Here is the input.
Amino acid sequence: MKKILFLFAPILLTACVGVPGVMRPKEPPLVIEPVTAGGPVDVATDPTVSASTQPQSEGRFLGFSVTTIGDVTLPGLWLETPLVRTETTGRVVAENGRQIDVMLRPTGGARGSGSRLSLAGFTTLGIALDARPTLTVIGDV
Here is the structure.
């Protein structure tokens, strides 16, 4: 048994440490691209909502919310969220930078319990229907 271990020990060591002079595939260099801030972002509006209920100001940050798809039979751009207590207008910003005006509806759930976004909201934001994106929720003040 000792002879077998003695024969395989150098092989195991060179496999772990590497053999000088032996070519190994190079890893590609790590490239970090700077993110450029901003310019204007297009905001999609819901044509089924009257102009009087469209957001009228820059709004107030309400929080972040992990979001799933809501009732697909309900039309329009809306977000059911525990971040509001009464129905109000606002907007959501997706992780990809797109944002849309929505009707914010209370769920009555505890803060942090997650939100539900309309089917139209998912498609307008360009989010996969099976994703669970974290949305930034902004309410009109």
About this structure: Residues 2-17 form the longest helix (16 residues). The helical segments are 2-17, 119-125.
